[in-house]
User: Which sequence fits this backbone?
C-alpha cells in the first residue's frame, strides 16, 4: 500500500492496477476485520463502518503550476 500512497503525490496512482476510480454521491465502507483507526477534525475514531456523503463542488483543491 505504501508505494501506491506515495505515488498519489504526483497523481501517478491512477494508473496503478490496484486503484479503481469511480464517481458516487455516497460511499459506504465496511471494515470486516474489526475497528479501523481514523480521524475526523483531529478527533481519533475507531470505525467498523463509514458512510461518506460527497457534496458537489464543496471542496476547492489548489495545486502548484507545473
Assistant:
Amino acid at each position: 500500500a505504501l508505494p501506491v500512497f506515495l505515488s498519489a503525490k504526483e497523481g501517478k496512482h491512477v494508473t496503478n492496477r490496484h486503484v479503481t476510480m469511480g464517481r458516487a454521491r455516497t460511499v459506504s465502507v465496511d471494515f470486516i476485520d474489526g475497528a479501523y483507526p481514523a480521524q475526523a477534525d483531529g478527533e481519533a475514531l475507531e470505525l467498523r463502518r463509514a458512510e461518506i456523503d460527497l457534496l458537489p463542488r464543496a471542496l476547492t483543491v489548489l495545486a502548484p503550476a507545473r
